[in-house]
């Protein structure tokens, strides 16, 4: 009877070991990401630079819609609106989060506005890919 | 003898800890980290805004013109070129005169990814003096 009982029990220790290892791997190797409300696929790049924490982020969607920061999520900004925001906040550096499939005319238009507003530093967010 | 073996068995049973709640929590943590973490490495690319606002005839002499047309073809000073050879060609030109500016004319309908790729190649060629304009064709 006792031998039968012993056979029925499954040894869970190896399972726990593996789960712990997987947990440690995901905790150390990955970075916790926030959900992107805009669903933007940023361009890929082979140049690795440290990501900045800029004062202001401009989001440009595939269809050319422009948003400033994540606070104005549902509100598309017209040129007048974001010029007002830029003038009010006077950011020294701006991060540009642009979809990789956006036509370049929107990209250049935003750069031109930022240039006219005398923004010192503009960085484009990219995904680093190893070559 | 009988009583002795009974106590021994009872002692063994008491020592074993129920690890099921631990496994539950660890599973939950594992699922959380698997769903919430990302392995994509974020990077940034600085765009030089002050690399020449206007391009007049005089400065255009010292300018390397890269054209990215609607089909995605790249022309370096009106000569068709492969993406892989941009870096070498631009390096050759810049090594002669480091003050050369690179003017990238991209078709307005071309995807940003291709423009970024071109900027990247020019950067790797050794210059940050890049000006972006729309191709007016």
Rough shape of chain B?
elongated
Percent in strands of chain B: 15-25%
Q: Which structural class best describes the helix and strand composition of chain A?
A: alpha/beta
Q: What is the typical, i.e. mean, pLDDT of chain A?
A: 80
The overall average pLDDT of chain B, rounded, is: 81
Quickly describe the structure.
By secondary structure, chain A is of the alpha/beta class. Chain A has 4 helices and 6 strands.
Provide an overview of this structure.
The complex is a heterodimer of chains A (131) and B (137). By secondary structure, chain A is α/β, with parallel strands linked by helices. Chain A has four helices and six strands; from the N terminus they run ααββββαβαβ. The model of chain A has no long low-confidence stretch (mean pLDDT 80). In chain B, strand 6, helix 5 (112-125) and strand 7 form a beta-alpha-beta unit. Chain B is 46% helix and 23% strand. Chain B is elongated. With 137 residues, chain B is α/β, with parallel strands linked by helices. Chain B starts with a helix and ends with a strand. Chain B has helices at 2-15, 20-36, 57-60, 83-96, 112-125; strands at 37-38, 41-47, 63-68, 74-76, 79-81, 101-106, 130-134. Classes of the chains: A alpha/beta (131), B alpha/beta (137). The interface between A and B is large, with 48 and 42 residues. Strand 1 (31-32) of chain A pairs antiparallel with strand 1 (37-38) of chain B.
């Amino acid at each position: 009877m006792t031998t039968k009982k012993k056979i029925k029990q499954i040894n869970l220790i190896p399972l726990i070991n593996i789960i712990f290892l997987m947990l440690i791997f995901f905790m150390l190797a990955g970075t916790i990401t926030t959900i992107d409300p805009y669903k933007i696929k940023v361009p890929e790049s082979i140049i690795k630079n440290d990501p900045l924490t800029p004062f202001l982020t401009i989001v440009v969607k595939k269809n050319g819609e422009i948003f400033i920061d994540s606070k104005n999520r549902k509100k598309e900004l017209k040129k007048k609106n974001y010029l007002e925001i830029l003038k009010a906040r006077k950011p020294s550096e701006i991060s540009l989060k642009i979809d990789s499939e956006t036509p370049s005319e929107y990209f250049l238009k935003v750069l031109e506005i930022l240039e006219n507003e005398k923004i010192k530093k503009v960085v484009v967010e990219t995904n680093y890919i190893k070559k | 003898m009988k009583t002795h073996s009974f106590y021994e068995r009872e002692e063994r049973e008491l020592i074993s800890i129920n690890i099921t709640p631990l496994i539950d929590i660890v599973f939950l943590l594992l699922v959380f980290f698997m769903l919430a973490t990302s392995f994509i490495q974020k990077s940034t690319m600085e765009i030089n805004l002050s690399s020449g606002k206007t391009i007049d005839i005089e400065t255009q002499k010292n300018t390397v013109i890269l054209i990215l047309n609607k089909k995605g073809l790249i022309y370096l000073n009106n000569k068709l070129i492969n993406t892989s050879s941009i870096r070498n060609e631009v390096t050759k030109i810049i090594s002669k005169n480091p003050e050369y500016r690179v003017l990238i004319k991209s078709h307005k309908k071309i995807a940003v990814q291709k423009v970024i790729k071109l900027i990247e190649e020019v950067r790797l060629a050794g210059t940050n003096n890049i000006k972006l304009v729309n191709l007016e064709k």
